[in-house]
Records
---
Amino acid sequence: MIAAAAAVSCTGNRAEIKLTLAGAPSEQVVVKAQNLNRYEVLDTLYTDDKGKLAYKVDVRKGDPEFFFLYRNDRRFASLLLEAGDKVRVEVDADGHLSMSGSEDSRLLAELNEEQKKVDAALSDIQNRLDENNLQDLKVEFNKVYIDHYRSSVAFVMKHCKSLVSVPALYEQLQGNALPVFGRHTDALVFKSVSDSLNKVWPESRYAQALAVEAQRRVNEMQLSMKLSEAEARPFPELVLKDRDLKDIKLSEVEAECIMLHFWNPAEPAQKMFNVDVLFPLYKEFHKKGLEIYAVALTSDRVGWGLTVGDQNLPWINVCDPSMNAAALYNLQQLPTTFFINRDEENQLVRAGEQFDGVESIRKYLRKVLK
């Protein structure tokens, strides 16, 4: 629907958005809603001859929602609205935004502005980077990042009863390449905020999803701590069949470093992980002593075999229909990656570390495969 002023007809609770765009009569504005991890277009509107429009959206009581306003395909306002909210959004001729009528939306705008400033500061440092000032700018980069991390912790703890803390916890800098809360110990921050939100907003989908993520992170942190504190000892043996039904024993893999990778071939994202992460790593490090022992945890051997063939995966691929490996390695999620290295006595041991992303994996491999 296209209109100068529109209202969504509904029988439930609603929130109202009143927008003023200075000097922008008949300007197109697109309204989008967030549905957990995806965005949905709600409507396309036009301002009146004074640059104004009004719009009402459905918001279930007890379940605040995120909404976004776009102009010329660019987001200019982010809103977090409860049922009954009446928010006023004003954009002056210079593009400066002001907001009233929704404290959560004001905080969300503050959060977005701070992220823009930090991203700009980090980009400026990278643009000034060269061989002569490498170390100095690394120190400067880390200081900007750590200062922002500390202020972000303070922000989410101060506003732990508001759902505005959720996007703050998932904030990514530098084009989604640098998570603000990426440490294992940040699981404690996630858990603290999640506990607070579930007391205030037990019906919120975002609070419920955060509870699941917080528990996942706590499990990861606990497993990582157990592994890092454990003495070096032989890893649990695996003897699994490859596509040719040949038994492949993990302990007999000849490599200086083995990447033990557990995955589910039925998940598209995990199949893309083969292409986007494992292939580049294998190409870079295989000749230096890396081998991948990829364990598919699935009862669908046929589907797994087709995936391995279609993707032409060059490393060791085996399947565990019994799922026994999940218990042996105390897996909490898929995919999960471990590294097994040969010590000075040529004994295979399990590395006491888990890895969250490709850069942490690459850093580790560069350290052990010199």
Note: DSSP finds nine helices and 18 strands in the chain.
---
Amino acid sequence: MTQFNPLQTIKRRFFAMRNGIVADTLRKAGSPYRIIFGLNLPQLSEIAHDTGCDTAMAETLLADNHTRESQLLAPMIADPATIDYCEATRWADAMVSAEAIDVLCLKLLRRMPDPVTTAIRWTTEESPESAPLRKYAGIRLMWNLIPQHSASLRPVAAEIARTGGDTAPLAARLMEEIDFLAGE
């Protein structure tokens, strides 16, 4: 009798839903993953819905940084109540693409306790070289927090936009969005 392996079940679903055209397009665009099934977010959301909240599986998928869909699915099934600043930082630093950071912020980090402090710390502290996407993650997390926290986020975004760097254009767009929603 074979033993039930939830990870194998998820990987089989990745394989069954694969889209070669999307996978090839991502590879040609320079995606950093060795394994790309080409699933889209609605497909991954369906798998996440069927899987439910499963912290152990989320950790297993997070550790699989060679497979695009594993990194995208992990934050969809993790429990946001278990994520504090240190855990959020560990998750952000484990992601290997901007796409994975976007999903992490949208599906998990915006729902964690006190996401504003995390976003501000990531955008204002000097990230180590081993965490090239952390500042980007802070700004992307801010985008997900605009409706409720624009007053506390705007000064931080303004400072990032003023000082320049890789994330300055994104911070400038964030400020524009905050101002637009405020009617300014």
Note: The CA atoms of residues 90 and 132 lie 13 Å apart.
---
Amino acid sequence: MTKVQIYTDGSARGNPNGPGGYGAVLQFMDSKGQLHEKVLSAGYKKTTNNRMELMAAIVGLEALNRPCQVELYSDSKYLTDAFNQHWIDSWVANKWKRGKSGTVKNVDLWERLLDAKAPHQVSFIWVKGHAGHPQNERCDKLATAAADGKLLLVDNGLDIS
């Protein structure tokens, strides 16, 4: 199974009310041992930070055209904890209800993320944001490019060898 690393980010400048972008950088090694990188952007978006983080993860996973072993890096503790602490399992079991606080927000995106994740083995890895961490820097650069360039996602599948 091909091993792929996905670096995601939602907000370009850490301001959910300002200009933002969401996207993912995919890195994978081919059969000859060469490292490849693919930058995917879903373009300029003005929305809440959590929705952007979810979309960034979805963009990365949906770009894979066959099952892969994925390490997904995100500075969103909410996104990584949803899977690592099994919140999402509880949400689904309770029909997208979260205790007394009502319906889980962004159910449409969580469902889409579950569908995108299904064919893969995914590890969700939290990267502490904005602390000079090189993996987080990669995520930030991608999101800033998406916001500044208003890039659009044009790849519907990657030929990963």
Note: Residues 125 and 144 are 21 Å apart (CA to CA).
---
Amino acid sequence: MKRFIYISLIIIMILSCKQKENKTIIPVNEKVENEETRIINEEKNEFVLDNLLQYNSEAELKKDFKGQVKRATGYYPEGMGEFTKTVLFPGTKNEVEFIWKDDSLHFNQLLEIKVFKDSTNWKTKDGITIGTDLRTLEKLNKKPFLFYGFEWDYGGMTSWDNGYLVNRNMAVSLALPETVDFADYEKLLGDSQFKSSSKIAQKVNPTVSELSLIKK
């Protein structure tokens, strides 16, 4: 039940709609390169995060990515408990978390995939990745969006405010740059929403620190 509450909160935040996934992911000869298997998109030879939504069980992942899949413990915000997740490419910059509806027996029925590692090669088909800045997100959304203040469990979580990205089933959390002035830092704290077009948001220009795609 806690897992459904958490996923529901994310879905409400992004007001998203279901999209179909048509592309394929091909492991190249099941070869390990730099401690991970390269994922090749047929058209662009890129790590396209959307393509992973086609996997609907841990068993499918293990079949395609031998030796690159393991289980780990995840934790819900605000002390709501823990769950078991599947991790692809664990311990590398291209680590991906898979969260399942059934996370105790069959580990299937995909709910969400998530990336959060700096310098990851993964990006969405829109080009969004870890480190994408607020100004770029605003352009892709084709209008300003909203985000929560920082330094609490839902800090930096975005809402696309009926912009272009609202249909992408995508949840993004932002983080403040390490170089932010303390005076600006204080203005963006707490359980309240800020508009991306505000002067303080444009000045500080937070970047994506966590990126999730939700399967509906």
Note: Residues 19 and 122 are 19 Å apart (CA to CA).
